[in-house]
């Protein structure tokens, strides 16, 4: 039996079923019901482990509506688990509205930690890991993606992105254009699965490998990109400070040009800021 009125946020494997922890299994076996992103997908996982608990669908299209009903069930004393299709719920997956609603209602929300593709990739990348930013998926549309990357080009911390098979080539090309092709990056593909591959190269090098070999475009990807370094951060901060002052008296394009020249920060990262 689980503590009544508790929402257990349970991580599930990102490929290798051996990564479901004993505590995750025990929790899934003993809750009153399991909220799942895709009930058919989770049913397969549960039947592999011989777990038979009721499943409730909770995905991005019904989460707002479902959250209040689920909170009512928790308030009535039920214990519920929240899982997503793979890895840690809420990490580029549904769940934050339900967790927020449960917290707002004063209910206990308890994690059962486990696999997360971003952290698994970082743990094998060998790129500075003391400070990092998780960017999730880049925008799907090319223009929006390139705009986002301009803003991230001077980020000094290690950057972690999720990417899918059908956009990996385009994203690597846009990253190389925005960050410079010589920036170091690690591409982690199909982690914990049969075709697990971790490539450590420059952005240009990764792009060439992925373009030359169709097998390297298959599966699921995490891209870990080295940060621009503190020097770039200092330049950007100085550039933004100058731009804010100059834009009070000059047209934005002139202010950005001057601030970029004086600080060494990229003009595009300054234009329109603030
Ligand atoms: N909640 C999940 C987690 O904790 O990692 C992530 C869910 S997100 C919808 C799915 C994305 O995670 C994939 O497109 C891919 O970028 C990444 N991913 C998931 N499993 C992976 C794996 N085994 N190897 C590499 N990347 C993976």
TrEMBL record:
One function term, GO molecular function aspect: rRNA (cytosine-2'-O-)-methyltransferase activity
Pfam families in the record: RsmI_C, TP_methylase
Keyword Signal: no
One annotated Gene Ontology cellular component of this protein: cytoplasm
The RsmI HTH domain, residue ranges: 237-272
Principal location class: cytoplasm
Catalytic activity, as annotated: cytidine(1402) in 16S rRNA + S-adenosyl-L-methionine = 2'-O-methylcytidine(1402) in 16S rRNA + S-adenosyl-L-homocysteine + H(+)
Sorted UniProt keywords: Cytoplasm, Methyltransferase, rRNA processing, S-adenosyl-L-methionine, Transferase
EC number(s) reported in the record: 2.1.1.198
UniProt superkingdom: Bacteria
Domain Tetrapyrrole methylase: 6-204
Compartments, as annotated in UniProt: Cytoplasm
Keyword Translocase on entry: no
Family matches, as InterPro entries: 4pyrrol_Mease, 4pyrrol_Methylase_sf, 4pyrrole_Mease_sub1, 4pyrrole_Mease_sub2, rRNA_ssu_MeTfrase_I, RsmI_HTH, SAM_MeTrfase_RsmI_CS
Function: Catalyzes the 2'-O-methylation of the ribose of cytidine 1402 (C1402) in 16S rRNA.
NCBIfam families: 16S rRNA (cytidine(1402)-2'-O)-methyltransferase
Similarity comment: Belongs to the methyltransferase superfamily. RsmI family.
Alphabetized PANTHER family for the sequence: RIBOSOMAL RNA SMALL SUBUNIT METHYLTRANSFERASE I
Protein name: Ribosomal RNA small subunit methyltransferase I
Species this chain originates from: Lysobacter arseniciresistens ZS79
Gene label: rsmI
């Amino acid at each position: 039996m689980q503590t009544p009125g508790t929402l257990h946020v349970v991580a599930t494997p990102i490929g290798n079923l051996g990564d479901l922890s004993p505590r995750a299994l025990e929790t899934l076996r003993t809750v009153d019901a399991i909220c799942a992103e895709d009930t058919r997908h989770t049913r397969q996982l549960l039947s592999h482990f011989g777990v038979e608990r009721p499943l409730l669908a909770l995905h991005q299209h019904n989460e707002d509506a479902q959250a209040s009903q689920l909170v009512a069930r928790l308030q009535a004393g039920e214990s519920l688990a929240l899982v997503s299709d793979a890895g840690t719920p809420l990490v580029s997956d549904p769940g934050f509205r339900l967790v927020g609603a449960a917290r707002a209602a004063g209910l206990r929300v308890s994690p059962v930690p486990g696999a997360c593709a971003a952290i698994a990739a970082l743990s094998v990348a060998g790129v500075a890991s003391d400070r990092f930013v998780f960017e999730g998926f880049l925008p799907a549309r090319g223009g929006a993606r390139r705009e986002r990357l301009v803003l991230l080009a001077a980020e000094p911390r290690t950057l972690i992105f999720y990417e899918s098979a059908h956009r990996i080539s385009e994203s690597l090309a846009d990253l190389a254009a925005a960050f410079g092709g010589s920036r170091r990056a690690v591409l982690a593909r199909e982690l914990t699965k049969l075709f697990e591959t971790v490539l450590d190269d420059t952005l240009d090098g990764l792009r060439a490998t992925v373009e030359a070999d169709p097998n390297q475009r298959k599966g699921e990807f995490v891209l870990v990109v080295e940060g621009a370094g503190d020097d770039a951060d200092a330049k950007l901060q100085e550039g933004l400070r100058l731009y804010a002052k100059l834009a009070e008296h000059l047209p934005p394009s002139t202010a950005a040009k001057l601030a970029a020249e004086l600080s060494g920060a990229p003009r595009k990262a300054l234009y329109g800021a603030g």
